[in-house]
Specification:
Elements: E1 3-7, H1 20-26, E2 31-33, H2 42-51, E3 55-56, E4 58-60, H3 80-97, E5 101-103, H4 113-131, E6 136-139, H5 155-165, E7 170-175, H6 176-182, H7 186-193, E8 197-202, H8 218-227, E9 233-236, H9 244-247, H10 249-253
Parallel strand pairs: 1-2, 1-9, 2-3, 4-5, 5-6, 6-7, 7-8, 8-9
């Protein structure tokens, strides 16, 4: 049975961040993920998780200065120390909170031998640190429409990087939304890439709303995940059409449960 995590950076945004843990639990979720929890103390986050019977699955490395155009630092030459500091921060949080995944954001830089090498070297160093804490790093191809200029945009690029890094705790974040926009052929890609997949995320295309509309047959996607034996988590990283709780009817429609 598939396990679903509420991405509380996208879901329950009508509430203050710390109140979203309560809302997720009340909606039936046992698992949560988020992007950047670093404005909150570890102790406050742990309290919310424990009081609501929740487990944190994954966080992202801090993106850098969003106002200055940063969207991750992993592939940015000259910012290696900043990326490692962001990874150390993420490791501190996931280790203290019991999570096992960190999405390492690459950044908005052109694809060159230099940026490629920077990302590979950063991931190697990061993976060695993460292995000591039983943490897996994941990298995510992001579509060029949502994040113009992002370094990592397709699954083959990610596969090549993972192979070159050569660390068993570096995996692919298979975001169905992004990969449908960039590549399509989703079920074949799931079957082919299954050994490398460390996390899955979902949203409708093109709206990025609940996965019960648009051009992706998510019932077929869920069936494929079960058929290939995917035993990880499916992150609900979508933008609700209206209220988050009202929108969760999609789970009943598609025959799945929050956890």
């Amino acid at each position: 049975m598939l396990r679903f995590a509420a991405n509380i950076s996208f879901l329950f945004k009508e509430l203050p961040f710390l109140d979203r843990f309560v809302a997720a639990a009340e909606s039936g979720f046992k698992l949560v993920e988020c992007h950047w929890p670093y404005d909150n103390a570890v102790e406050a986050l742990r309290d919310r998780l424990e009081r609501n019977g929740l487990k944190l699955v994954m966080v992202n490395t801090a993106p850098g200065n969003l106002d200055a155009g940063d969207f991750g630092l992993g592939a940015v030459p000259g910012r290696e120390a900043d990326f490692q500091a962001a990874l150390d921060q993420a490791l501190l949080y996931v280790s203290a909170l019991g999570a096992t995944r960190i999405h390492c954001m690459a950044g908005k830089v052109p694809v060159t031998s230099t940026t490629h090498g920077t990302f590979v070297d950063n991931l190697r160093r990061g993976a060695d640190k993460a292995r000591e804490k039983d943490v897996t790093l994941v990298i995510e191809p992001i579509n060029a429409r949502s994040a113009p200029g992002y370094f990592l945009t397709n699954s083959q690029q990610a596969v090549d990087i993972i192979g070159e890094v050569g660390r068993p705790n570096v995996k692919l974040l298979f975001d169905v939304f992004h990969l449908q926009i960039m590549e399509g052929d989703l079920i074949t890609r799931l079957e082919k890439l299954k050994p490398l997949i460390g996390h899955v995320q979902i949203a409708a295309v093109p709206s990025r709303a609940e996965p019960d509309e648009g051009e992706i047959n998510y019932r077929a996607i869920f069936d494929a995940l079960e058929r290939i034996g995917y035993d990880g988590v499916v992150g609900c990283e979508y933008l609700p059409r209206a209220g988050t709780k009202e929108g969760l009817v999609w789970m009943k429609t598609l025959g799945v449960t929050p956890s």
